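One-letter codes give the sequence; the fold follows as tokens. Both lines appear below.
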Amino acid sequence: MCRDCGHLAVTLCRAMNIPARYYNGYLGDIGVPPVDAPMDFSAWFEVYLEGGWYTFDARHNAPRIGRVVITRGRDAVDVAMTNSIGASVLRDFAVICEEAQNVSAMTAGELIAAE
């Protein structure tokens, strides 16, 4: 669903000569009501307006915390998350997002060391 919404939004933006790019990755569950379903892949898009790129989510239509970008490109064809030849089986997979506290003054290296 989010992939289709993202593609449609990117297409509409480009039809109006607004530069747009497609993203996929994970969308964290920080700051939203809990859901019983596990976190899953997500897709969103960015548009270039007035000198900067702005993130939009055609499916959720609300600001969210914890987007984890896996790939970025013109559309989903450019940004396949996986490619395989022959049979493949995903046996287990989990993504956990937790909101970081007091990180504004820390560098990326300090964040990694703090874990």
The longest strand covers residues 20-30. The two ends are 35 Å apart (CA to CA).
